[in-house]
Amino acid sequence: MPGPPVSSSRPMRQARSHWSPEVWRPRHLLHLSHQEGQRGPDRLGALLDRKDAPLTVFQAIILGLTQGITEFAPVSSSGHLILVPWLFGWSIVQDPALNKTFDVALHMGTLLGAVIYFGRDLWRYLKAWLSSVRARVIRSQDERFAWALVIGTIPGAIAGALFESTIEDRLGQPWLIAVML
Length: 181
Prior knowledge:
Elements: H1 27-36, H2 40-49, H3 57-70, H4 77-88, H5 96-117, H6 119-135, H7 141-171, H8 174-180
Helix pairs in contact: 1-2, 3-4, 4-8, 6-7
């Protein structure tokens, strides 16, 4: 049975009046943005230009560059992501969920760049490792190196999983990070 007739003078978008672009926005952004008294993209743009905004585009670029530069240095790139806002005096809203999401996104970008750059070597070592697993013997230098990578990763992964909250709670202060670098 067909539904009620739709007036041809009414645009199709009005038929979906229950949908709002605000549905996908995080709640804290909506709360702050309504205080601005603006609508639509202008409201979100004004929010991102505020001093107490979660993160401006400029800050995101600076933190991304910091992550890229320090990732392969023998220092903590995650520590630098705490130090840089502290040194610049940025009053980034301390939202743990946003900070964790942004940190993970930066690290995924770094991982993607590393996989692209080292792709041939990674593929060679992956094939060597799988070959040694199938043969149950280490026969080549590549197989030995692949096993060293696997075994060398295990202690750090276990320590990170076991002590993540302790590390975040006790070692996340900028002054302590600066001293330990």
